[in-house]
Amino acid sequence: MEIRQVQSFVHVARFGSFSRAAETMGYSQSAITVQIRLLEETLGCRLFDRTTRPVTLTTAGRAFLIEAKAILERMSRAIDRVHD
To answer: Quick one: 25 exposed, middle or buried, by C-beta within 10 A (0-12, 13-18, 19+)?
Structure first.
C-alpha cells in the first residue's frame, strides 16, 4: 500500500467521482483508477460501488475511510515535526 493510493482513495470518497478526484490531484482519471484498483487488490475487497453516480463507498470502504484519514493526518503531523 502506497500513500498515493490512500490519498487517491480519500479524494474519490470526498468527491464521489474518480474524474473530480483526478482533477483536484493533478492526475489523469486512469491514474486514479489504477491507484484504487491496486489498493483494492492489496486489501482484498471493493472500496467503492461504481454502479452509482456519484460513486459510493462500500461497507469496507466506509471503515477504511476512517483509518485512511487518520493515516494521512499522522503523516502530516510527522512531516510538520520534522520541519519544526
So the answer is: middle
Instruction: Give the model's pLDDT for residue 25.
Output: 96
Cell of 36: 484504487
Residue type at 9? Answer: F
Q: Residue 11 in contact with residue 24, Cβ under 8 Å?
A: yes
What does the pLDDT look like over 14-72, one tens digit per residue?
999 999 999 999 999 999 999 999 999 999 999 999 988 899 999 999 999 999 999 99
3-state secondary structure the chain: CCHHHHHHHHHHHHHCCHHHHHHHHCCCHHHHHHHHHHHHHHHCCCCEECCCCCCEECHHHHHHHHHHHHHHHHHHHHHHHHCC
CA-based angle 11:43:61, to the nearest 5?
Answer: 45
Record the pTM.
Answer: 0.92
